[in-house]
Structure formats: C-alpha cells, structure tokens
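A quick aside before the break. I want you to see a complete sequence-to-structure record at least once, exactly as it would be stored in a machine-readable document. Don't worry about memorizing anything.
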Amino acid sequence: MMKDPEKTIGNLIDKQTIAFIASVDEEGFPLMKAMLSPRKREGIREFWFSTNTSSLRVAQYRANPKASIYFCDKRFYRGVLLVGTMEVLEDDASKEMIWQEGDTLYYPLGVTDPDYCVLRFAATHGRYYANLSTKEFEVEVT
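That is the input. The structure line, written in tokens, reads:
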C-alpha cells in the first residue's frame, strides 16, 4: 500500500493545520478535540502540543494517559489515526523547546506561565486510510 509508511504519513501530518486529539473521561468515554497542529514531531512516534495546564484535557490525561490523535487530509480524503499515551510536561526544557513567538497571546506570563504546559504524545500503533482502503501498523520505537 505504501512504499515508505513513515514518510507518507509524515507528509500528510506536516500539511495539516489542525490535529484532533482524544482523551478518556472518568466514565470511560472518549472525548475528541481539535487543536493546532503539533509544535514538534519525531517521525510518527512522538508529538508535542502546547496547551493550558488548567484545561479539561490535561486533567483527563493525568488521570488516564490513554490517547489518540488523528490527522485528516480532506483534499484527498486520507487520514491517519495514531494510538498511544499522552504525557503532561511542565518542566522548563519542554516548555522552552516548543515555545513560539506570539504565544503570550495565550500565555501572558510567557514561557514560565503556570497555565502553559506541553502535551507529549507517544504512538504505539495506528491506522492509515487512503484510496478506499485501510492499513493497520505498529509504530517502531527508535
């Protein structure tokens, strides 16, 4: 189906401005949210997002780190679902790593704003859809 799955999926991800992330609530129901695309990614294994420490998702990931992220290319009707875990990071190095100019709009106190944190998603497996077919795959740890 794909000559180089990581390259094909990586290219799809890099062209999207929106990512959909899912968490699990206290009753075990999945909850989906649209977010800006990840600030950083390493292959299709690790993704970093910025968010508010006070957000509902952060509380849910702290209680249950099971998560998924989804990217959709509506132009060609392709998509990729990645399943794994989400970690909430509040250390200075992680926050500085993905900080961007203009973030003070969301975090007025700057990179040390206590309401600014980083979500790090680590994928274990996924499912790619294109050309009316799907392909399940494992994400290799490097």
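Two observations worth writing down. Strands lie at 18-24, 30-36, 40-42, 46-52, 66-73, 78-89, 116-130, 133-138. The chain has a mean pLDDT of 95. We'll return to this after the break.
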